[in-house]
Amino acid sequence: MWLSTLLIGSVRALLGASAHWEGSAPTLAQRIYFANHTSHIDTIALWSALPAPLRERTRPVAAADYWGVDPVRRYIALSGLNAVLIDRARAEDGADPLAPLQEALSAGQSLILFPEGTRGTEASPGPFKSGLYHLAQRHPEIELIPVYLENLHRSLPKGTFFPVPLICTVRFGAPLKRFGGEEKPMFLDRARDAVVALAR
Predict the structure, then answer these.
(1) What is the spatial distance between Cα 138 and Cα 143, in angstroms, rounded to a whole number?
(2) What are phi and psi for residue 74, nearest 5 degrees?
(3) Rounded to a whole number, what is the distance in angstroms from the first to the last CA of the chain?
(4) Are 191 and 174 in contact (CB under 8 A)?
(5) Domain ranges of the chain
(6) What's the pLDDT tens digit per position in 49-103?
(7) By CB neighbour count within 10 A (0-12 exposed, 13-18 middle, 19+ buried), where does 51 fall?
(8) Model pTM?
(9) CATH assignment of 2-196?
(10) Which residue intervals of the chain are DSSP H helices?
(11) What span, in angstroms and rounded, lies between the C-alpha atoms of 186 and 169?
């Protein structure tokens, strides 16, 4: 608990990370929040922008090859953020890489997901990988909320280690609509467009 409080306080003091709800409202509905990804601080900024009751039931998805490689990072991810660690490389034994996310969703938890799969260097997101599509197909009852993280690509860009204090905004959009029979490429393009549409 103390680590979560410290992380939230630090992000708010440095970046503001104020939440703007545009087309949706903070509710306890089970959701997958999906956002652009340009900084290691993205996860904490989005998570801290949620009201406390939502934060308690929302788990960020983090790459095990970064957040699980040493005890400090792993402690921050698991104890500070209650993150779900996933292996970005497909398991050699054929195990489903989305299994940890499936388990969290089946337990009634919400997720924070970065569908690009890795950090970009531009304000706009790159192409989305297929994980969001497969989760949406398996869990049609869960709301999909696009999120745009503004200014974080300038505050802590890829390759830097210390954030520059800037006012950053977390914009939550309207739930992404689903269309029966929609092919994966079209769905992923629509999802990306929903994030881009929140940029200012």
Answers:
(1) 12
(2) -65, -40
(3) 34
(4) no
(5) 2-196
(6) 999 999 999 999 988 888 888 898 899 889 988 999 988 666 556 678 899 999 9
(7) exposed
(8) 0.89
(9) 3.40.1130.10
(10) 2-15, 42-49, 52-55, 64-67, 71-75, 99-106, 131-138, 152-155, 184-196
(11) 28
